[in-house]
User: Fold this.
Amino acid sequence: MSGWRTHSGPAVGLDQHGIDTDQLIPARFMSTPRTEGYGRFLLHDQRFEEGRPIPGHPLNTADAEDARFLIARRDFGVGSSREAAVYALVDFGIRAVIAPSFGDIFAANAVNNALAPLRVSEAAAESLLSLTGTGATELHVDLTATHMNAGQEKIAFALDDHWRTKIINGWDDIDLTGKHQGAIAAYREADMVRRPWAVVARGA
Amino acid sequence: MTAPRTLYQKIWDAHVIHTREDGADLLWVDRHLVHEGSHHAFARLAERGLRVAEPGLTTGVADHYVPTRGTPASEAIGRMIATLRENCARHGIRFFGQRDPRQGIVHVVGPEQGLTLPGLTMVCGDSHTSTHGALGAIAFGIGATEVAHVLATQTIWQKPARSLRLTFDGALGPGITAKDMALHWIARLGSGGAQGHAVEYAGSAVRALSMEGRLTLCNLSIEGGARCGMVAPDDTTFAYLEGRSFVPDGPHWEAAREAWSDLPSDADAAFDRDVTIDAAEIEPTVTWGTSPEDALPIGATVPDPDRAATDRRDHIARALDYMGLSAGRPLSGTPIDQVFIGSCTNARIEDLREAASVLAGRVAKVPGLVSPGSALVKQVAEQEGLDRVFRDAGLTWVEAGCSMCVGMNGDIVPPGKRCASTTNRNFRGRQGPGARTHLMSPAMVAAAAVTGELTDVRFLLTGRAA
Ligand code: SF4
Assistant:
């Protein structure tokens, strides 16, 4: 996975709160191999009716085709732990989601795929949403900064420091954990003595 | 003297391998459950040529895609189950597949087989992993990248959650269940109300719950945004576990019992937040909207967006539009098209008994599906004759799996149809595109089946054991 530090591009707005992961990608698409691309499934049932794009949906406009950022209201990505919700956003081209709050599992999944969950105040989300309206607005995000730029406006965002580092470097936890192998093995050995009952019994 | 600690802290502390400078801990994982959705994670492992670190601590269960009737609905669905079977075989992981007597919904199977134990850390690539906390474990859902990490290392990076104690004082009224307790607190605190918190359920009404009830309560923790939900282990827990397949026996059982009795939160342990709820105030609760927080007592009326708080207006209006409901009308009496009894929330034996007690000797006015939570639950239910009650009432009795909770196997609610459901999510399209879901307890679903509309089950319980 490749990391990133800055991105500029169109931001589209979804004036909804509590966009859950079942909406981000309906369950029926999740048996698809990732190699086939998940972008077309993003918010599928909001965007399409009987296979045809619903006109007026912010993700169906010409502006949305090159969208790099998505702005929404609070509780973005609540619900199911499906990482496919992140795949759909990433494959659509989105690099950061900007909202007042996120579902915990979604946010962790996002970071693992270099999708930045950027937290902003309710007021900032409000003003960004009014900037985009049903179209798009240009945003510039530098992850090493504390503000993003929308034209002349500067908007503060929050991102956990470790997450910031992970996204910038495109790091993967399996690599990071590798260097703790000795500590893991030592824990395992001591734990076998301390809690012999915790290993899985044979089962009938 | 060590400082007083909560149940969560005690388990957490016992699992820390390493603490990173930013405060995240590398935790040992005692149990890892995988289901069909793990295909992305296994693919990542394969890409890197990695092996599963601890196959013995890992269990595969087919649930999300298993057909509840006959053969898989499509080739793609069949392939999902086959892929899980192959991945488990390749890595030497125990696998409960279709037609295995131990198969069922992963969160029903874990406790039922005794894989879930007090004091453990457990993860699964599924948000309702919070269910297992009912036995006094730290159990939470993770995404595919994290599943791959746990497969490869048997560890996970986590920052400790803040703590929230939800105390249910007093006793529940007749006909009121753990499902009502859960919907009640989620409606009160909101679907993000417990975000970033580990919830410990406490109080006399929680102590009085059976293991099944506690599992239901913890299952829904995630719908309030919590990282996990827990109940301190007690005699109810130990009695439930003793003798189950994967529970330690002999001297290990004795050692475990001793370790477990130290787990409950110390009397003076501090919680970041404390919320107290009077159990007696809880009524049969149903959802009217498209988020589990959109829940009200059955005697209430559909909320009016124009009278709601400004930040709720838009959500309520959109939800009512999707649900085909008009503001101000009583919830009770809303006609339904079908019912579903199933899912990791409410498809354990006690749930089926509860629904059957309402349905016995009655006929459903609408069609419906009853999918037991596991093959074992199905077997016990059939021994007790519950399948007959459901069939005689006109409902369809099928095999165990996630079924209509999420519709991955093809069991879906048709567009625009209204379903009274014992499941956990009433999100748009959750039970199928355009499906309208009302969440409620098994008894309330049974009542809705009998009357063909949302109904206060208490009217149907007169002279019956609730
Ligand atoms: S029953 Fe529903 S909520 Fe539970 S694991 Fe299956 S799909 Fe998820």
Remarks:
- The radius of gyration of chain A is 20 Å.
- The pocket of iron/sulfur cluster is lined by residues B 63-64, 105, 107, 126, 128, 343-344, 402, 405-406, 424 (CB under 6 Å).
- DSSP finds eight helices and nine strands in chain A.
